[in-house]
Amino acid sequence: MKIFANSKLQLQKTNDASKDEWKSVAVALGSNIGDSYTILETAIKNLAQIPGIILEARSNWYKTKAVGPPQPDYLNGCVIMQVNMTPDLLLASLLEVEKKFGRVRKERWGPRTLDLDLLLYDDLILHTPNLQIPHPRMRERAFVLVPLAEIAPNWVEPVTGRSIQELAKDVDCSEVHLLTNI
């Protein structure tokens, strides 16, 4: 069972994958082009309107330095959702929302209006050409682990068997700053 920090969330049992069952998922959001705060807030509303998605918890926003080439700082956060769709369909939905916000995939680690990363899908471990779950770099990224630990500290990452809170203690979080002046 996964236990979430947010009291609105219920304990979830993980079962064998079935598209008719609701699954807990974690998604990271980021933006560093345009009005990032408004983009991220609107993206969450867009996600919540997709059939088969129920928003359950969201983190605060955090300002972080960009990874990769010189570019503006990012705003990052995470959401926990319940979904009754396969990982591939969820990924397609996330990519469609990114596209609505003008996301163009030109440069790896380049600036972006909206970045949505599927981090966790219940306790599933999946490696396909188009999708890896858990997200392969989430364990290295403070800008993912800090907001995720805020809303799901006890969620166990299935590859390591360690909680998100434990993983967050292993990374340098000094460049992840809570957004306070909204």
Automatic annotation (TrEMBL):
<keyword id="KW-0289">Folate biosynthesis</keyword>
<dbReference type="GO" id="GO:0016301">
    <property type="term" value="F:kinase activity"/>
</dbReference>
<keyword id="KW-0067">ATP-binding</keyword>
<dbReference type="GO" id="GO:0046654">
    <property type="term" value="P:tetrahydrofolate biosynthetic process"/>
</dbReference>
<dbReference type="GO" id="GO:0046656">
    <property type="term" value="P:folic acid biosynthetic process"/>
</dbReference>
<keyword id="KW-0547">Nucleotide-binding</keyword>
<dbReference type="GO" id="GO:0003848">
    <property type="term" value="F:2-amino-4-hydroxy-6-hydroxymethyldihydropteridine diphosphokinase activity"/>
</dbReference>
<dbReference type="GO" id="GO:0005524">
    <property type="term" value="F:ATP binding"/>
</dbReference>
<keyword id="KW-0418">Kinase</keyword>
<dbReference type="InterPro" id="IPR035907">
    <property type="entry name" value="Hppk_sf"/>
</dbReference>
<dbReference type="InterPro" id="IPR000550">
    <property type="entry name" value="Hppk"/>
</dbReference>
<comment type="pathway">
    <text>Cofactor biosynthesis; tetrahydrofolate biosynthesis; 2-amino-4-hydroxy-6-hydroxymethyl-7,8-dihydropteridine diphosphate from 7,8-dihydroneopterin triphosphate: step 4/4.</text>
</comment>
<dbReference type="Pfam" id="PF01288">
    <property type="entry name" value="HPPK"/>
</dbReference>
<protein>
    <recommendedName>
        <fullName>2-amino-4-hydroxy-6-hydroxymethyldihydropteridine diphosphokinase</fullName>
        <ecNumber>2.7.6.3</ecNumber>
    </recommendedName>
</protein>
<feature type="domain" description="7,8-dihydro-6-hydroxymethylpterin-pyrophosphokinase">
    <location>
        <begin position="108"/>
        <end position="119"/>
    </location>
</feature>
<keyword id="KW-0808">Transferase</keyword>
